[in-house]
Amino acid sequence: MKSSEIRALFSVVSRPEVVSLAGGMPAVSALPLDVVGSMIGDLVSGMGAQTLQYGSGQGDPRLRERICDVMALEGITDASPSEVVVTVGSQQALDLVTRVFIDPGDVILAEAPSYVGALGVFQAAQARVRHVAMDDEGLVPEALEEALATARAAGDRVKFLYTVPNFHNPAGVTLSEPRREAIMAIAERHDLLVIEDNPYGLLGFDIEPMRALRARNEHRVIYLGSFSKTFSPGLRVGWVLAPLAVREKLVLATEAQVLCPPSLTQYAVARYLDTQPWREQIKVFTELYRERRDATLESLAALMPAGTTWTRPDGGFYVWLKLPHGLDAKLMQPRAVAAHVAYVPGIGFYADGQGREYMRLSYCYPEPDQIREGVRRLARVIEAELDLHSTFDSVDTGTFRAVPAAAPRQAAPHDTGAAEPLTGPANRDQTEDPRA
Fold first, then answer.
1. Ranges in the chain annotated CATH 3.40.640.10
2. Rounded to an integer, what distance in angstroms lies between the CA atom of residue 93 and that of residue 298?
3. H or E segment at 251?
4. What is the per-residue pLDDT across 168-184, written as a single tens digit (0 to 9) for each?
5. Which helix (H) or strand (E) holds 133?
6. pLDDT tens digit sequence for 94-132
7. What is 33-275's CATH number, 3.40.640.10, 3.40.50.150, 3.90.1570.10, 3.40.630.30?
8. Is 90 exceeded by the pLDDT of residue 395?
9. Where in the chain are all domains bearing CATH 3.90.1150.10?
10. Could you tell me which residues are beta bridge partners of residue 161?
């Protein structure tokens, strides 16, 4: 077990002088905090005997009913409250599913890059993660077919595919509609279980919520959801939607792990969904995040040096940035922190050491002016790194005679890296040091 790249930054990003583009912390200040506070106070004073007591291992029945209402917004209209297990955030949901399905040495397929919290869970379960390439349209179906064939040829059994299809963490991309159909067809042909992790699906800026993978196949997809991004991360309320046979095992795993999810936070979320205009509040969040996304993209286009590319998210919290050729986001990180800007190096989002040329930028928490200043500081750090590399690359250290510097890759100011895999050997120059 080891600390994640994000958790390791917490002591740094809490400093007031540092602009943090690192942590994906929702903007809870946009909530009507006085109304929420009164609601929770009334809940305790009126239902204290229930809210402060143990509860069911599966979760509060009323909350499970309302969770089905939330999932219906993404086309999951056949879900039953009996198939829902309430969890301590979707992180616990992911841990429970992994406990139920994974034995040491099992293979899990996951996007490249992939959510760092999932990789930590898989590592703790001693699973072997095999990454599958992505591009601007999300997971590549042909790459999934190839990964399954490779595993079969090696005699490995793939237990499941883990995917974040909407406004991906960390890549920011969204799985296109044709690819959703293609991936579910592949899963059907190969008898593949799919774990759909969807905390951001209702936070689209310009598109309606896309139809969930679970809405296309109720038997082959286990769906993970959370109220952390649409209400409050501090309440730690998430859920799993699974077929009944799997649900029974998840409840047993919950009872062994925490006995039951906290009653007070479950009642608070249920009361919020019952009494507050939560759909309108989601619209407030999306407009706020859209403004911050725009500030990020405009600043990147105006300030980043040639050779830098990035994704353009249609929702969610993140931009995935690729550095100019030869730069290493992990090695550059201390110099960025010294310049009072923080990001998450890409290496933390891979199980196999890839991703040093990438970084994740989160725009959900800082104000737009802070974002612009943070991108300005980051651009100066990258330019300094480029100057340093240019200096050393222009000297032949064997004979100390000057040699021409390699021309940097050129990119248009608004280059978003379209139609290019987000990572993998095929996306590297043949002469590039594999450690980079």
1. 33-275
2. 36
3. helix 244-258
4. 999 999 999 999 999 99
5. strand 128-135
6. 999 999 999 999 999 999 999 999 999 999 999 999 999
7. 3.40.640.10
8. no
9. 7-29+281-427
10. 109, 194
